[in-house]
């Protein structure tokens, strides 16, 4: 199964390992971290290293939208 995280219609991350994309998606929407850790993750990893920006992100499985979330503005 191919999984992707897209923002503004563009695929930012993709994998077929079955586990990394759901974890990263939850990290991006703040489900897996406390507030201070989450802010650092967004600034240092999501925005700078991965190329995400604040706004809606979409999680796709095999080309179909599975769920959406929001990366907040800091």
The dominant shape is globular
The counted number of beta strands is 4
**Mean of the pLDDT scores?**
96
Helix-strand sequence:
EEHHEE
Query: Roughly what percent helix?
Result: 25-40%
Percent strand: 35-45%
User: What is the total number of structural domains?
Assistant: 1
Largest sheet: 4 strands, antiparallel
By secondary-structure content and strand pairing, the structural class works out as alpha+beta
Number of helices: 2
Largest sheet, spatial ordering of strands: 2-1-3-4
Radius of gyration: 12 Å
pLDDT < 50 runs, ≥5 residues:
none
User: Could you tell me how far the N terminus lies from the C terminus, measured between alpha carbons in angstroms?
Assistant: 33 Å
Description:
The chain is α+β, with helices and mostly antiparallel strands and 74 residues long. The chain has one domain. Helix content is 34%, strand content 35%. The chain has a 4-stranded antiparallel beta sheet, covered by helices on one side. The chain is globular.
